[in-house]
Amino acid sequence: MIAELIIPIEELRGMLRKDGYYFRMYKGKQIVQRCPNRKGHVKTEAEQANQERFAAEYGRPT
User: Fold this and answer.
1) DSSP assignment of 1-62, as one string?
2) What is the pTM (predicted TM-score) of this model?
3) How many angstroms separate the first and last alpha carbons of the chain?
């Protein structure tokens, strides 16, 4: 959904409330989008391997 803002506000970014929507700019237009719902998501083997690889390379030593 494209949103038109009132004059004092030029742009919004991120979530304003915990209502499931967030604001962003896309190609110079203000966009309102629904937040993705990741509840119940089961990671694939590729996702798990990618997270482990990322953690090994960029994670903090414990």
Assistant:
1) -B-PPPTT-----B-SSSSSEEEEEETTEEEEEEPP--TT----HHHHHHHHHHHHHHSPP-
2) 0.52
3) 44
The pLDDT confidence band at residue 2, using thresholds 50, 70 and 90, is: low
* Contacts (Cβ under 8 Å, ≥6 apart) of 49: none
13-22, 24-33, 40-49 — which one is most confidently predicted on average? 40-49
Give the distance between the most distant pair of CA atoms in the chain: 49
Nearest to 5 by CA among 35, 20, 16: 16
- Contact between residue 32 and residue 46 where contact means Cβ atoms under 8 Å apart: no
Q: What are phi and psi of 17, to 5 degrees?
A: -135, 175
